[in-house]
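Hi support team,

I've been running sequence recovery on a batch of backbones for a student project. Most finish fine, but this one hangs at about 90% for roughly twenty minutes before it completes. I'm not sure whether the input is malformed or the queue is just slow. I've pasted the structure tokens below so you can try to reproduce it. Let me know if you need the job ID as well.

Thanks,
M.K.
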């Protein structure tokens, strides 16, 4: 490890521009002649559009045009799609209802767009939007997924009778039922995973530019995967031919999954630019973000976990109903299936597992991946069930987990996944030591003397990252491959540019990716630039989500670096009249091992481009590309322990300590990894204690459409975290890394709820555990 290489705690290069206000976000982009879009959105959760009158709006000051869904349809713009095909257990394909970028006949959630105003300013566009007259015929509403499945419930899409999208299963139902029938003990629990709003710091935005002279389109957008956005907008939405569409995702202020997808607004801005002849920009306000950004979670599950007389798990049976909202978003179908049910073995040997999943349409915002995407839902279900089982069996929750840990690898679970490496006991021991688990009884007694209730809870999570290989996910229904690409360009003076198909929106790629190059060639990281987020600059890439940037994106860079290194060594050996096998790279020089012969890196680079003295048959230049398709998922895992104190008079919960022991394999930059864990913990604690999207069940109105109503975690809600890292390197990629970006959000909610329920002596408590919810649970316990 060098001072700036792999394993070094290098401060993030990109933070200088962010902290000094020099970041360049989509809303910062200004082009000549630019106008502004404002969407007219439905105030009703379910209604037919009887008529639409835009004449008054068109006559208002500054208005360029007012466009509607019928015009969009007439111009051949396609429906939004879900890109992962799931089949029901009877073999029928999922029922995908039509999602128009601008509705022209029926609206299905509050916020569904019905028109767009293009004007000289945002204010003028907003004023004109209020003048658009829409006559609606209101229809019955359903917001709860289980109610949407009932006979007589309002129907959202003719394509999906009974609002059922698919009825899917995984595992062996017969084996699970047989083991449950023969069990010495069966724990049964109903698990609610609350709906969340993603709330990245930067709201979504889009700038569409049509150049009529070149017949070319440019879209600036807040995207986690600009290449996929270009592919989908060209191949499926008919916005523009792919070779005539450039998508740029500049600095992006957080995504958490919600910026993976292509939303109606990007499509409409590009189409409207062509239609009006002016560049069109749209930026969401915060309420608009609550109304239209894809939500996350929203599962209800019935669980049975069976144990033999030695307290070993013999079976797990799960029945889940997942709310996907009014329409199927881009990856929504995969979240409650292959990103959720395949992780239900957790860290445990469970011989028989069966999970049935029904996904449902409701009159709510579409639901898709949110930090963790299926993995938090699986972990919360499993770890709340394990804690409940320990209480019912009268045994230590730590020892019940330890007794059932997987200890031999590779391990094939009953639900597809094959875990490649891990040491779950090491993380458990590290967390218990850091939390002073054995000293808890004394701390509980001290709290009781002060009139407080103290509890401790744990969670042992596992997740699957770097979703791959492409052939495997394709066989499971994915519409794209999940490889990654990289290109390494060594310039004539020896500086290096890395072009990556991954996208950074807070992960620190400009630092960690540069550290790979610094480690390999002994160069200062200031000599290394990372280029991403522009489809005209970077070869095709698959973007960033699912903690894939390290395991997949960096591995592609490593493959390209291998090729660059091999060519540089050939040139150096030729110039120094030595054998190529004797050339080593150290401290920015290419040396002949065992001699004093050496060439500085820049001199070899210059030789590659002057091409005056290259080996026979070698092409000039020093630039190489690579694609990397993983052989398996990676499997980060860990143990989290939370200790809380509850005020029985008010129900207020204070987190006394939170310990996180994670195994992410090899780590490139420990400081950035710790920051990722801290951020994930904050979001997981937010879900457990504070956050929750709420709808009025009779009208479908969103009741939590601002930060006045939707509680986000603040600094005083969070403790100082104690984090540690154990390491079992991943055998499936060249760097041995596993991924860290989602772990905190996956493992923390069950640890916190387990701690609160331990404190209050009452196991029935749903997220968010607000003071009122906790107080009510305390009263129920009495």
């Amino acid at each position: 490890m060098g001072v700036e290489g792999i394993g070094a705690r290098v401060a993030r290069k990109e933070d200088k521009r962010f902290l000094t206000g020099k970041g360049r976000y989509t809303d910062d982009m200004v082009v000549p002649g630019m106008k502004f879009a404002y969407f007219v959105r439905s105030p009703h959760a379910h209604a037919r559009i009887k008529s639409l009158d835009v004449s008054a709006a068109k006559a208002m000051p500054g208005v360029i045009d007012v466009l509607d869904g019928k015009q969009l349809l007439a111009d051949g713009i396609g429906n939004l799609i879900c890109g992962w095909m799931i089949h029901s257990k009877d073999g029928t394909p999922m029922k995908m209802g039509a999602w128009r970028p601008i509705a022209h006949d029926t609206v299905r959630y509050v916020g569904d767009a019905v028109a767009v105003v293009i004007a000289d300013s945002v204010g003028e566009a907003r004023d004109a939007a209020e003048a658009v007259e829409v006559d609606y015929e209101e229809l019955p509403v359903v917001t709860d997924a289980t109610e949407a499945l009932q006979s007589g419930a309002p129907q959202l899409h003719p394509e999906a009778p009974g609002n059922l999208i698919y009825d899917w299963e995984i595992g062996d139902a017969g084996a699970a039922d047989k083991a449950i029938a023969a069990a010495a003990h069966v724990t049964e629990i109903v698990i609610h995973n609350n709906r969340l709003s993603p709330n990245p710091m930067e709201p979504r935005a889009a700038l569409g530019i049509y150049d009529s002279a070149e017949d070319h389109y440019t879209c600036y957008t807040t995207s986690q995967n600009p290449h996929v956005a270009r592919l989908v907008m060209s191949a499926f939405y008919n916005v523009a031919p792919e070779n005539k569409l450039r998508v740029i995702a500049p600095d992006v202020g957080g995504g958490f999954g919600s910026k993976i997808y292509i939303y109606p607004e990007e499509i409409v801005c590009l189409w409207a630019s062509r239609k009006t002849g002016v560049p069109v920009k749209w930026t969401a306000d915060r309420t608009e973000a609550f109304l239209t950004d894809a939500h996350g979670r929203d599962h209800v599950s019935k669980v049975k976990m069976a144990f033999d007389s030695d307290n070993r798990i013999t079976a797990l049976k799960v029945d889940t109903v997942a709310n996907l909202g009014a329409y199927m978003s881009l990856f929504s179908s995969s979240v409650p299936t292959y990103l959720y049910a395949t992780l239900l073995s957790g860290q445990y040997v469970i011989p028989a597992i069966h999970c049935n999943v029904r996904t449902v349409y409701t009159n709510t915002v579409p639901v898709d991946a949110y930090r963790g995407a299926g993995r938090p839902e699986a972990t919360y279900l499993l770890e709340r069930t394990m804690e409940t089982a320990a209480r019912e069996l009268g045994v230590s929750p730590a020892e019940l987990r330890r007794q059932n840990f997987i200890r031999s690898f590779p391990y094939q679970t009953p639900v597809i996944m094959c875990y490649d490496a891990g040491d779950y006991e090491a993380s458990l021991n590290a967390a218990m030591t850091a939390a002073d688990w054995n000293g808890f009884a004394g701390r509980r007694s001290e709290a009781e003397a002060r009139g407080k209730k103290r509890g401790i809870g744990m969670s042992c999570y596992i997740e699957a990252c770097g979703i791959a290989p492409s052939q495997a996910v394709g066989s499971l229904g994915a519409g794209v491959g999940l490889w990654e690409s990289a290109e390494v360009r060594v310039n004539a003076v020896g500086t290096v540019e890395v072009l990556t198909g991954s996208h950074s929106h807070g992960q620190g790629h400009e630092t960690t990716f540069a550290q790979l190059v610094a480690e390999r060639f002994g160069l200062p990281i200031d000599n290394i630039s990372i280029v991403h987020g522009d489809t005209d600059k970077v070869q095709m890439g698959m973007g960033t989500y699912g903690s894939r940037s390290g395991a997949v994106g960096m591995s592609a860079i490593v493959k390209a670096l291998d090729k660059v290194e091999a060519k540089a060594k050939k040139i150096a050996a030729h110039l120094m009249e030595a054998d190529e096998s004797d050339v080593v790279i150290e401290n920015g020089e290419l040396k002949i091992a065992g001699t004093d012969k050496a060439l500085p890196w820049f001199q070899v680079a210059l030789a590659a481009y002057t091409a005056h003295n290259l080996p026979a048959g070698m092409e000039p230049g020093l630039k190489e590309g690579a694609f990397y398709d993983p052989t398996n998922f990676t499997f980060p895992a860990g143990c989290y322990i939370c200790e809380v104190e509850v005020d029985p008079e008010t129900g207020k919960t204070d987190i006394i300590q939170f310990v996180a022991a994670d195994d992410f394999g090899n780590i490139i930059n420990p400081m950035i990894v710790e920051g990722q864990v801290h951020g994930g913990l904050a979001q997981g604690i937010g879900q457990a204690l504070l956050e929750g999207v709420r709808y009025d069940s009779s009208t479908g109105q969103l009741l939590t459409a601002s930060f006045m109503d939707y509680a986000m975690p603040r600094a005083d809600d969070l403790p100082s975290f104690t984090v540690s890292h154990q390491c079992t390197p991943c055998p499936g990629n060249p760097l041995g890394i596993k991924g860290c970006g989602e772990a905190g959000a996956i493992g923390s909610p069950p640890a916190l709820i387990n701690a609160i329920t331990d404190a209050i002596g009452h196991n029935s408590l749903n997220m968010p555990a607000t003071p009122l919810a906790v107080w009510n649970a305390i009263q129920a316990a009495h």
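--
Follow-up from support: It reproduced on our side and the slowdown came from queue contention, not your input. The first strand starts at residue 35 and ends at 41. No action needed from you.
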